[in-house]
Amino acid sequence: MVSIAIMGHGVVGSGVAEVLLKNADSIAKKAGDAIEVKRILDLREFPDSPLADRFTKDFNDIVNDSEIRIVVETMGGLHPSYEFVKACLESGKSVVTSNKELVAAKGDELLTIAKSRNLNFLFEASVGGGIPILRPLDQCLAANEVHEIAGILNGTTNFMLTKMIEEDMPFDDALKLAQQLGYAEREPSADVDGHDAARKICILASLAFGRHVFPDQVHTEGIRNVSLEDVKAASLMGGVIKLIGRAKKQGDKISCIVAPMIVKEDENLLAQVRDVFNGIMVRGDVIGDVMFYGRGAGKLPTASAVVADVIDEVKHMKRRKALFWESGAPDYVVPYTEDSTAAMVRLRGVTPAQAEAAFGAVEVLSHEGNVLAVLTPVMKEQTLVEATDSLGDRVISCIRVAE
Amino acid sequence: MVSIAIMGHGVVGSGVAEVLLKNADSIAKKAGDAIEVKRILDLREFPDSPLADRFTKDFNDIVNDSEIRIVVETMGGLHPSYEFVKACLESGKSVVTSNKELVAAKGDELLTIAKSRNLNFLFEASVGGGIPILRPLDQCLAANEVHEIAGILNGTTNFMLTKMIEEDMPFDDALKLAQQLGYAEREPSADVDGHDAARKICILASLAFGRHVFPDQVHTEGIRNVSLEDVKAASLMGGVIKLIGRAKKQGDKISCIVAPMIVKEDENLLAQVRDVFNGIMVRGDVIGDVMFYGRGAGKLPTASAVVADVIDEVKHMKRRKALFWESGAPDYVVPYTEDSTAAMVRLRGVTPAQAEAAFGAVEVLSHEGNVLAVLTPVMKEQTLVEATDSLGDRVISCIRVAE
């Protein structure tokens, strides 16, 4: 019997307890040992839980209990998750987490502590919910040089964009619906401003390219400014607007961005990832394009990934997984302005000739009344910024086109 | 340094040698040891290969060489692959193969030999080419009860169907083009009659549900009888025709089928898997739907999966992977006639009323001249067979609708 603790009995944490109880027999068979939830840390009371007698409000009941070998962290947020996880590792316990904020901010440090003590710090659930992505990526990486990862990493914004695209629902209504359905928080900034996607692309880029990438190194734009008119103009070029997180190898450095991008329906399977689903495309030198798809969030899918990590840890107790990356560096991520892109630009009171003067050989997508929508050629982001700046408030919107 | 041998220097085998040479440094780093190709078995001569001095025509040079710890089998076919792989395992060497025919026919026996000698028999490349699918499936399985797997498992037929759907290219022309491009063999039966897909769904079903499934237990229909008229009628219900391999849990037994099916574009991401790509959908009780997508064939993608297995084996030398399944049984797979399905039926000289008399409440998709296309309700396969039999040669075609 292996004793574990769960810190945080919210959506994911209660899902982990539920899956461990529901599939206890098959899990014990797969892990080679029964798994007992000995302690659950939460400040709230859960008198009706079948595990009501395991609850504690005191972290010391977990960190000082030498019987507890694995600690699951599903509290979310950075504090006190960081301090608790660090203390658990330092007291000789392996840690499994679903906390993307923690991994994106402190992954390198926690992996280093785990390595030095021959423990594991596992976080499959932190990206893509239940979709197996970090281990397969690690496996893809074995025989490949991965040079790009691009994905729809946030289910809430993908749900909202799907409503905008397929039902002409304005942004504000789509947000309200997402909140009603429990997909978006009352304070939706982490989703709609791209921070959640930024944390996830940091974790993917850190693993794929071997050095830690911090969220503040990622140029991040959310979907607040995407309008139904943008959606319609994108459809004129056979594209849909998706919030894309992307990391690319650039020599010894990388580029990393989160932004709404136009994805062409004919060319890119990410265009077909609808509703709350996530899709992550990995591009390797040998393997070509590989995509992983599934529910990127939700209680049970995420709990499924956490439990898979716990089972893996029980099977490999005292054997370290290879999962590791080096510390980051301020100049490791090149400024986004050095990257190149094409863009769809919507302009008010600008003639095609004036658009061409600003952006080069543009393709006119539509020209209705005094509103012109054009597709620019591929150009340096810096040049694109200068061109839009030169047109001032005549620019209604500017949305990148995914390669 | 770990010495390995490669049996077969065809498309995949030469790709394995190429990847091992090309990415030697990064592979050594990931495996924790350098990997040396000590022997290559092939009856042909390759004087221009950088590994020309490693070639042998004598299997004994491999099986009797105690320095060789891992043998890669990329010969294809059942004989002498089976005898060679068995002999290698029995002489204490782990084996990595891309040979789906071998795994589908002899997987349980070879896994049992490997288990009894504490060796590994690995075959990630046998399904989905370079797409990591078997390990992630194993991982999905850890916390999930998987109840269905359905996929586009053959790139050649998917390429042909894509040409038929998108370019109105008749079957014969699509086949010729596939042959010209090297996707199809001159004798294309393994692809177009569904045998290749049947082998792959056997491997997936064996792993997911824990008992060996043999190709002759799978009801297998190919795409030879799919016409452009079928493609057009399917489009009237928002669907595309794909060759689907599907296995479903049915209590203690399973159902398993390979057949062309209509996949609805709005409902199922498999509809968007185009060209030579493969897509495999896994449905679990906790995780929901997960899809894996990528190039299902080709020299380098397949070689990439073989090399990933070799690296994994070097890292875990003398440690068995969990990969295993039990022997099969004649009554383990239920007859396909006991399963249920809806179907699109095209009929000549039949009125809607007569169609309704035969199939129940049908939906008329089109009625042009004397050709009627209808969508039947979901019914037992046996009932569907009886209904089409009752209409005799007035039935032009009958194609299942995927759920």
Structural account:
The structure is a homodimer of 403-residue chains. Chain A folds into three domains: 2-129 and 299-315, NAD(P)-binding Rossmann-like Domain (Rossmann fold, 3-Layer(aba) Sandwich), CATH 3.40.50.720; 134-295, Dihydrodipicolinate Reductase, domain 2 (2-Layer Sandwich), CATH 3.30.360.10; 337-401, ACT domain (Alpha-Beta Plaits). The first copy, chain A, has 14 helices and 17 strands. Chain A has helices at 11-22, 24-31, 60-63, 81-90, 100-116, 134-143, 155-167, 171-180, 189-192, 195-209, 228-236, 299-315, 352-359, 381-391, and strands at 2-7, 35-41, 55-56, 68-73, 94-97, 121-122, 146-152, 219-220, 239-250, 253-264, 277-284, 288-295, 340-348, 363-368, 371-375, 379-380, 395-401. In chain A, the strands form two sheets. In chain A, strands 7, 8, 9, 10, 11, 12, 13, 14, 15, 16 and 17 form an eleven-stranded mixed β-sheet that branches. Chain A has a six-stranded parallel β-sheet with strand order 3-2-1-4-5-6, sandwiched between helices. In chain A, helix 4 (81-90) runs parallel beside helix 5 (100-116). Chain A is elongated, with a radius of gyration of 23 Å. The termini of chain A are far apart. The interface between A and B is large, with 44 and 44 residues. Strand 12 (288-295) of chain A pairs antiparallel with strand 12 (288-295) of chain B.
